[in-house]
Amino acid sequence: MILYYSSRSGNSLEISCSLKRITMATKVLRSLLHELRQASPNGCIKDSLAARYILAQYKKFETTDQQLCKRRDEALFLGQAYLTYLSSQRKYTELYKEYHGRGERSVRDTADLVGFKLPTDPK
Description:
Blueprint: H1 11-39, H2 49-60, H3 70-99, H4 107-114
Helix pairs in contact: 1-2, 1-3
């Protein structure tokens, strides 16, 4: 979204900023729902209480072009914080499953894990 300012009307900057804010809020909402789907065991969030709560909060703080709502910015920041938490939690779980010790590993498994190639013995 490009912000512009016209000398004829001071409202064009406000409208452009509000459109940018709405677009950002929509992206955050979609990303939050995507992360909830990833965290769900069956991939369905239709009956999820978390998804219902997020959608209710999104609708509660929805504003029009004529409204300037400070609370909307706070809700957007909170949504971004939740999104960061959920994505970090998912990445942590993936890394934990991959690198958590499962007992002794062979030299070849350890080399593959860190990205080294073992020399081959010509026979």
